[in-house]
Amino acid sequence: MDSIMMYRKTTKNLGEFSGSTSFLKQVELKMLVWSFRNTAGLSTPGVAYGGWEAPDCELRGHFVGHYLSASALMWASTHNETLKKKMSAVVSALHDCQNKMGTGYLSAFPSEQFDRFEALKPVWAPYYTIHKILAGLLDQYTLANNTGSLEMALNEETGGMNDVLYKLYSITGNQKHFTLAQLFDKPCFLGLLAVKADDISGFHANTHIPIVIGSQMRYELTGDPLYKEIGKFFMDIVNSSYTYATGGTSHGEFWKDPKRLASFLDAENEESCTTYNMLKVSRNLFRWTKKVGYADYYERTLTNGVLSIQRGREPGIMIYMLPLGHGESKARSANEGWGTKYDSFWCCYGTGIESFSKLGDSIYFEEEGKVPGIYIIQYISSSFNWNSQNIVINLKVEPVVSWDGHLHVAVIISSNKQKEASTLNFRVPSWANTEAANAFLNDQKLFLPNPGSFLSITREWSSSDKITLELPMSIRLEALQDDRREYASDHAILYGPYLLVGLSSGERNINTDTAVSTFDWITPIPAAYNSHLITLSQEFKNNSFVLTNSNKSITVGMLPESGSNHSVYATFRLVLRNPTSTELLVPEDCIGKTVGLEPFDLPGMVVVERGINQSLGVEDAIGNSDSTFILVQGLDGKSETVSLESARHRGCFVYSSLDLHSSVKLKCSAGSSDVKFKQAASFRLRDGISKYDPISFVAKGEKRNFLLQPILSLRDENYVVYFKIQSNKLSAEF
């Protein structure tokens, strides 16, 4: 069964990452190939990029190889002509360097690095870099039809890794390439897997996962079942003993003790490169076996492990590792947090741009045979032209939301006239509850098989045939892979394939003993709540300031950017105390009404007064009579401001002192002429800086509640992945 490259349309779930194309086009050619030209003895106009592409970095040139692969993958999906010209210019520039060298050698560093490597002298990873360059040239040939890049690959003095050399052999049929590939099979590692020894602890993960990928390529070329079994066993042991709830693996770039992950939850989890490579392993295994488990793994790891490593909608801003420690933040990821757009270029930047260039490469898989078939294994809005059957498959997936509880999928067929009957196979994810699921072909209801299988429909397809799926998404718990008793209660919370994390600096205790059902301790946040979010700001000393929750005390802080802890602390939900039948549409509707202020990250708590001239704090909302304020027009007389009057102490208002970091208090007016008081008690009513993700829940904790959102939605906020969940009836699906 061969995977099919498809034309990918933008989607709401993945469209936020569509900036990858613009980043690939923005990369400056002269800066990209500067070190290649320098090594070849050509003129070097301009300057080189920094980071791992800097002229003094021994790994320089690796990103150029990734760029060639990423641009080829993106072009294969989009056929963007500007990108085509750009990547062809890069290949041409590298060709000039190779010609100038005259030996077939092509790299951004001199060949003496290989001499040092063979002499066991200190050097970084020359074969790693050559592998990336060669892989990029082959992708330009196989995906973008650049025949010149194949000629360059054939001239390259690589000594590269097994995967790319087996690929080269598959194109050329030259036995020398096959023999050279075998030399890099690393029997000290593959041999352990061949005898099914679970002994990968201590190995560098991103060095050895590609060796497994190479062995998979060897299986495809030779049919030797040993290498198929190696891939299956490797995936089994990684998934059972070394994998986080994101689908990722590794700590500090290495595999540590199996089923002891609690000891390694910090800022150095899950190197991004390992995630990129594990997806390749699972993709190959699915192609061979058609087992849904591999497709489920791909979905989970793509959703949480790949989409989480880019900073929101900022292409070119990525992290090296994905922190999973209690109260960690992506901004504190190992290797200095977020990289910079043009001065980092770590290995994970290279695999990152490839990952975001092929978000749609594993949606459709074609199976040839007497009755040809298509397997649809990822539900991502897209279209696929199945030329051999005169069919266009249009896949539309509605954005997932927490308040609906279903994944809604529609597939509409366009066909001039199909040649013969064919089969469409739809993955029924393992996380789906088929008892409440629905499937229809046009108006006919279909029987859905058990989760972890495929719904298969065979017919002669005609235009306007429509298949609809409604797959229930439930909350489920997944235990941390640690077999020590003291960590038995450590669990991650998932909603379908989405890993939910709690906004927290480290608190993580939940007790569900009194819960009868899931919704007794975890509830979805309604869609309307985003319109209730506010930030209260003031202008003084030529700056903008906000009321902020600082360790459950209300203080004055600088106006923050969104996606940060400070934006979380400066956002509150406006809660009507005596709601009528009229729905709150916008905060201005609350003028003249009694309200409460709920901190964004502390659902179930409220801002409270602690007496006149005393600082405001944050406490539990239940039974608290000191949390009610009357929202009135601003005392300063400005139309855009409001003031908060105490419901218990009329004539007393929330007051800021107009001073950064000062405590916010409840103060009483000294009279109508007190201009400073009126200014300090008046606030601009802004939309909340932070927003609820469409997939948001509230989980009841022991001492506080937690706002849960997908890990992919966060930028710089602190979060907790694994909660300590105490329950006498704990189960995988509550």
From TrEMBL:
Residues 26-154, 155-361 form the Non-reducing end beta-L-arabinofuranosidase-like GH127 catalytic domain. Residues 373-473 form the Non-reducing end beta-L-arabinofuranosidase-like GH127 middle domain. GO terms for biological process: L-arabinose metabolic process. This is Alpha-L-arabinofuranosidase B, arabinose-binding domain-containing protein. Coiled coil: none annotated. Gene3D superfamilies: 2.80.10.50. One of its GO terms (molecular function) is alpha-L-arabinofuranosidase activity.
